[in-house]
Amino acid sequence: MRIRGVSGSIAAAGLAVLLAACSSGTNGSGGDGAGGATQAARTGPVTLQFWCWSAGQKEKVAAFNKAHPDIQVRHTDAGGGTDTAAKLLTASRAGNAPDATCLEYQTLPAMIVAGALADISAHTGDIKDAFTPEVWSLTSFDGAVYGVPQDVGPMVMVYNKKRFDELKIEPPKTWRDFAAVAADVRKKDPDAYLATFAPAEFGNFAGLAQQAGSSWWKIEGDTWTVGIADGPSMQVAAFWQDLIDKDLVKAQPLLTPEWNNQLNKGNILSWPSALWAPGVLYGIAEKQAGDWAIAPLPQWTEGDDRVAFQGGSAIAVTKNSKHVQAAATFAKWMNTDKTAYDLQIAAGEYPASLAGQQATTESEPPKLVSGQKDYWQVAAQIAKRTIPHISWGPNVGTAQSAYQDAMAAAVRDKTPLVDALKKTQQVVVDDMKTTGFKVAGS
Amino acid sequence: MTGPDGARRGSRAPYLFVAPAVLLFLAFLAIPIGYALYLSLRGLRLTGGGIFGTRQEVFVGLDNYARTLADPDFLAGFGRLALYGLISVPLTLGPALLFALLLDYAGARGRRFARTAIFLPYAIPGVTASLLWGFMYLPSTSPFSYLTQELGLGEIPFLTGGGIYPSLANIAVWGGVGFNMIIIFTSLRGIPAELSDAARIDGASEWRIAWHVKIPLVAPALVLTGLFALIGTLQVYGEPTTLKPMTPEISGVWVPLMHIYTSAFSRDDLPLASAASVILAVGTLVVSVVLLKVTQKRAFGGMS
Questions:
Q1: Over the stretch B224-267, which tens digit does the pLDDT of each residue have?
Q2: How many C-beta neighbours within 10 Å does residue A181 have?
Q3: In whole angstroms, what is the distance from residue B263 CA to residue B279 CA?
Q4: How far is residue A407 CA from its own chain's centroid?
Q5: Most confidently modeled range among A268-277, B107-116, B144-153
Q6: Alpha-carbon torsion B200, B202, B203, B207, what sign?
Q7: Is B251–A18 a contact, with Cβ atoms under 8 angstroms apart?
Q8: Distant-in-sequence, close-in-space partners of B201: CB < 8 Å, separation ≥ 6
Q9: Does domain A153-309+380-439 correspond to CATH entry 3.40.190.10?
Q10: Which of A168, A291, B226, B278 stands the most exposed, by the fewest C-beta atoms within 10 Å?
Q11: A87, A265, A412: best to mutate for the B interface, most B CBs within 10 A
Q12: Superfamily of domain covering B64-300
């Protein structure tokens, strides 16, 4: 009797677990719930699911919902750019991707090849001119439009002006100057470096290589060309190699406790990165608010002023969505409406739209660079001269992880950076061939 | 339940009772494993459609296994595991046994405090422990490197070169000794006091009692902890992943599980990750069976 009672209760517990698992399963498939809700509310508003990680989204979505009684958007933060991309691929294959999502520009081709995104060109005719052609080309491929640009990161050099003034140095205009200033810094303060070279900064290096004239992926007809180890890329790698070998820049990962500590001590004087950098640095070096400023990124040829983008994101509509038009309306409003870009600027993002960029010139500079009164004017000037159409490929994720591992190994083993680029190129080409892409010249 | 026959109902009862366990086993073990095996034979390949084409899931046979086994990074991961395991397994089990014996020694003082103190690190989540140690390893935040620098010896290369292995193993040892000590200690408490008393009357020293009486009797517990430590080594993931942003020494494919994660979520190749997972799981199984076979005679032979 006793034993029966025990096993009976175990069985009951087991069933309870099973039931719980089943019921959570039904609740968990949010797509069904949302679909049901919208169907039931055919007379009421359409409900959209929306994923985005960046700051200010909650406020923007609330403003959108207020302005659109017939479309109600539910916002979820699904994690940063890389995480969101990985989750979107999984959700898309399972058939329950959100209606709209933020995506980094570099992940768009991979999403298109995975068949995750809807072409919204039928709905975007009226907003194309709200962006510069360079920015618009970030989300449009061959006439198809796979998202509305949200924020952009034109590359700039962020530098600690206070320390620059102390050491009596000026922001370099060319990369040759950059090397000279780096040497000068080492002479004047042996603890300090002008900059660091971070082996994990894939997007940063891609931007620098693009500025030098490289094109990492290109497609003609159905044949791809991969240029990760092309001439200009190799030139950029050789440039940094020389600086590392001469101990003029320090090769170390970015934004680690170690790096942050050195930055706070005033031993890292600049960060060649993009317009979002002041926000990032303020998060780790609040005490240096007002000490920093931005300058145009150094150039390979004196007098040039073109720079690439680093980072930035668009809002895309997914193929899983049953409300493509409503989702497109949402994506457009979020990135072109005045209420939206005002909130976006307040959250510290640099808008992709021309009107948004214009609006920044009337706002206060970010706290880290509060001393630079013409910050937004400098930013707008730089943003106007970005290189059209960075070409990302269908396997940027593979490229990124291969690049990071190869570069880290090169820095660690003191082997040439150019070899790391060649290795990355090989991995990327092999991966594309395995998948079935035609790749030229290999 | 529908039949009026009491005997028939009785014969169904056992099936009803095992049904929940069987269902849970099917739902959460057998089906996922089966799906992983199925996925490992699939691959995402380009088909027409869309501006760049679209990747579709197709059957690719053993291609994923061939690619995984031919990948030097994946195999190198096992080499790193071996090095890491050579340091961490003995250093976890040795002190765990020593502490358990000391706690079991009747003359020891402050036993309750010592037991809690040794066990406490196990209660710290692995990621927290890794971050905590990470800060203590980084040159500009490390108290150890601060001391050596003050003494003019330069910083300690915790996170560079070969230093990464002892540094990582240290985190595992720090967290694992307490847990293993409790298992061995519990086993020691199960030894009848007469055995030690008899040895003591025969004039054996405490060392001899430990060596000839206690350790042979807790051998099953030692095998168990050894097996746990070995499987734990094969499944190392959290510590290196947490330290990865702090050092170029750790790549995204440093150990097999990191390799699997990178394949699945950075390279978007779930089938390849499935194949690698199957290989890792089979490897773990083989190692476990071999360890049990080798030790079974010695550990359990006299008991049954």
A1: 899 989 999 999 999 999 999 888 889 999 999 999 999 998 88
A2: 23
A3: 14
A4: 20
A5: A268-277
A6: negative
A7: no
A8: none
A9: yes
A10: A168
A11: A412
A12: MetI-like (1.10.3720.10)
Instruction: Please answer yes or no on whether B54 and A113 come within 8 Å at the CB atom.
Output: yes
Dihedral pair phi/psi, residue A322, rounded to 5° = -90, 0
- B255 phi, psi to nearest 5 deg: -125, 160
Residue with tokens 């499935």: B274
pTM metric for this prediction: 0.84
Q: Out of B54, B67, B253, whose CB is closest to A115? A: B54
> Tell me: the pLDDT tens digits for A30-84?
333 344 344 444 557 999 999 999 888 999 999 999 999 999 999 999 988 888 9
Residue type, B14: P
Residue numbers of B between 31 and 50 with CB closer than 8 Å to A = 43-47, 49-50
The DSSP bridge pattern shows strands A196-197 and A438-439 to be unpaired
Which of B268, B269, B270 is best to mutate for the A interface (most A CBs within 10 A)?
A: B268
Q: Which of B233, B228, B140 is nearest to A257 (CA)?
A: B140
User: Is A43-152+311-360 assigned to CATH 3.40.50.300?
Assistant: no
d(C-alpha A319, C-alpha A95), whole Å:
9
Which residue in the block uniquely carries the two structure tokens 């080492």? A186
Q: CB–CB of B251 and A431 under 8 A? A: no
All structural domains of chain A with their residue ranges: 43-152+311-360, 153-309+380-439
Is the pLDDT reported for residue B165 higher than 50? yes
List, in sequence order, every beta strand (DSSP E) within A187-265: 196-197, 217-220, 223-226, 250-251
